[in-house]
Structure formats: C-alpha cells, structure tokens
Amino acid sequence: MVGVYLMISTYLKPLDEVDAARADHLSYLAGLEEAGYSVTAGRIDPPTGGIILLDVDTEAEAQELIAEDPYVQRGLATYAAIGWHPARGALAGYQRTRKN
Q1: Which InterPro entries does UniProt cross-reference here (predicted)?
Q2: What are the chain's domains?
Q3: Alpha-carbon span 71 to 77, nearest angstrom
C-alpha cells in the first residue's frame, strides 16, 4: 500500500507577510505537482496554515522536500509531517503516478 505524508503548516508571521510570498510558494507547489510529489494542497480555514499531501516513502524525504518551500526558507511557516495510509473515500486505493 502506498503511503503519503500530510504536511501540516503553521504560519509563524502575520498573514500579510505570508501572502507576500504566496506566489513563490504556489510556484514551488506547482513544481512538486509536475514531479508527481504533491497529491493535493490547500490553506486551512481560518488561514493559520495549510496542508500539503506529499507522495513520498519516508518522513525524511517529506522533510527534505518541504525544506525547499519558500515559506520555510523565509521563516514564514513550519510543517509537521504525519504519515497516512488512505483507506476510505476518494483517495482509497491511491496509486503513485510517478516512477521511483
């Protein structure tokens, strides 16, 4: 069974500072999507952070990828990694689309 990692961010700075880097963050996410690492992503409501669902094998790999996020590099957010195996709903039976 393929596992994924929920990367749950917490903003460390006011939302206007986070939003000033949002275009760079979204560009980074687009690169992760193109490479097959990001399954989905979105901001938490209320906007105190967000969630990125990464298709990786280990927490170390998830942390390595997230370290390149402009939010992390600029000290705007931190991420907690939580391993997850989707068992029900839309992602049940999720299959990796990228080659290892």
Answers
A1: Dimeric_a/b-barrel (IPR011008), YCII (IPR005545)
A2: 4-86 (3.30.70.1060)
A3: 5
Residues in a beta bridge with 51: 8, 42
State how far the Cα of 76 lies from the Cα of 19, in Å rounded to an integer: 10
* Residues 6+ away with beta carbon under 8 Å from 86: 4, 92, 93, 94
Within its chain, how far is the Cα of 28 from the centroid?
10
**Residue 76: helix, strand or coil by DSSP?**
coil
**What does the pLDDT profile of the chain (100 residues) look like in tens digits?**
457 999 999 999 999 999 999 999 999 999 999 999 999 999 999 999 999 999 998 999 999 999 999 999 999 999 999 999 888 888 887 878 776 5
